[in-house]
Amino acid sequence: MAGFLTRNEVAVLSALATHALLNRFTLDRYSHLVLLAWIAAFGSVAAGEWRADAGFRKALQDTAKIACVYFVTLLTSVMVYRGLFHRLRKFPGPFLPRLSKWFSLSYVIPQFQYHKQVPLLHKQYNSDIVRTGPRELSIIDPAAIPLVHGAQAKCVKGVWYDMFKHMEGSSIHTARSKDLHREHRRVWDRAMNETSLRAYEPRVNNYVRLLISRLEEHENDKSIRMSDWVAFLAFDIMGDVGFSRSFGMLQKGKMDWVIDLLHGGMSAMSVFTHIPYVASLLTRLGAGGDVLRLMEWAHGTLDERKIKQEKQGEKDIVGHLLDCDNKEITSRRALNAAARLLVVAGSDTTSATLTFIFLELARNPHTQRHLRSILPSLSAKPHLEAQDLTHIPYLDAIINETMRLHPVVPSGVQRETPPEGLTLPNGTYIPGHTQIWMPIYAIHHDARNFSSPETFAPERWLVNGTTQAGVISATSSRENSPFDEKTVIVPSRSFSRSTTPSSTASTTPDNFLSETPPTDPTTTPSNPEGTTTYTANPRAFMPFSTGTYKCAGWRLAMIEMRCVVANIVRRWEVRFAVGEDGSDIDEKTQDCFTVNPGKLDVRLVPWDEDE
Ligand code: HEM
């Protein structure tokens, strides 16, 4: 009996020691080692029992009892600590997720729309900071953005980025060390600077031309799956600009198998985002065959690319990476990760945003008509090229407003506070090693940042009351927006409309944290004529993220999107196909880190010459 108790005591003490260890070190990347340690420990206990006369069955029973004591103690200790004594205990939030991120899955499954749940949590707890996991906070106060994301911020990328590191090494996207990221970024900045972009532009122009001619062939179709066509375009461009290899999808009118493979695993990301150590463990145990097939594909593509002679003066993105002399960046694994990043980060994001743009245009015919009226006529220039479209504020306003309503990384990106913690401008102290998400969708849909946040109102991005005077643009080279603190946005009167919103796209309530109208100096109240003006706080706008880790490809994305939207809207009015009203996208867009927007079917109706 005394021996049995002793074993129990040892089990209890070991459990407490394990908890202390798990608390002290971030072991997400090493979940397989924790599992192995358990197997080895309990295997040894069973072997010891067996050798000490018990017989096989008894040895198993005794080991199971000890394991029970160990795991019950460990779980109890973890739960009590997380629930009552954790360094984040003072922050409000739902009870169960503070015990384990597994409980967050109830907000994810079955709809995979976590981004729409987060604003509701902030509203429910009436707080800009909500604890959404044991060591995780969601923060929607834009004043915190510079401290969490800004160029001088001390936060680093969070544990989320380690999920697949054992398989692929570090790309610019998954490099958590600031030094390594800086090295990656130097190369990417070269690959995406003005000179490089000018070299890519003819390729973009050619693919947009091809898209238009393929759509002309379908002009009389009653239904065109626009979400597919813009995906074909985005992937073809990225194949060419990335590694001088088109996927040929616009020609074939069909998704390449690689893209199908890529999309196949997307829903899983909605889940693993919350429990990254499980993804790490499962892929080490041999799951994730799709990732391995993708890696094989990337190896093949890169080998082809290396053999191919670069055409003079026409460098692609991988060419820039190959030219770099840092072995960590040019290693086979790192290049492989970069090749897959190019396809995911460069294509899926752009194609999803284009899908959302055409959704909003179909909902807002007056926006299309106005855009068409300010673009050069078809007879003046049959095809508008990238350089024709750099100064059309209303076009950028449409793109911005779409990215505001439908950010393609809707739950934001994870950052970890420095060991000494972080004090927010409002004085709130966030302890060290806290995982922070600043949810982009929630911030973009907060009435304190954007008046009538559910309304599609491109005019909120226009300054000085005219569409031509300039636009608040995501394309600024400034860290977060082109505006300084004192900029006052004066939306155009000519675009003011009746107070009934024309598009209410989401289930998120307007003004979800506060019923009081915004008082920020960047906002303007309703005007006396009974029409509403729409306002924006540009500091809260971050569809491309911001700061050190801001999207490296945002300029390229803007070039692509401007070209596609302008050339389509000049030719056709985009209308919903019969049976389509956009609700499929509202209801089924999945938050899989990047979004999976589902399908959009439209009709392309040539404009009446007189219109
Ligand atoms: C509408 C289109 C796009 C949107 C909304 C978008 C958005 C984003 C966001 C939010 C991030 C931050 C991710 C994170 O920190 O985890 C990011 C990073 C990145 N994006 Fe984009 N992106 C777009 C297009 C592109 C394109 C065309 C490329 C070209 C290859 C690209 C390449 C990258 C890269 C390399 C990073 C990692 C940057 C770093 O960590 O320093 N993106 N993007």
TrEMBL record:
UniProt-recorded name of the protein: Cytochrome P450
Family the UniProt entry places it in: Belongs to the cytochrome P450 family.
InterPro entries, per database record: Cyt_P450, Cyt_P450_E_grp-I, Cyt_P450_sf, Cytochrome_P450_monoxygenase
Cofactor needs: heme
Keywords noted in UniProt: Heme, Iron, Membrane, Metal-binding, Monooxygenase, Oxidoreductase, Transmembrane, Transmembrane helix
Annotated binding of heme, by residue: C551
Top-level taxon in the UniProt lineage: Eukaryota
Pfam families: p450
GO molecular function, one term: iron ion binding
Sequence intervals crossing the membrane: 64-84
Biased amino acid composition, Low complexity: 491-509, 521-535
Lineage: Eukaryota, Fungi, Dikarya, Ascomycota, Pezizomycotina
Species of the source: Sporormia fimetaria CBS 119925
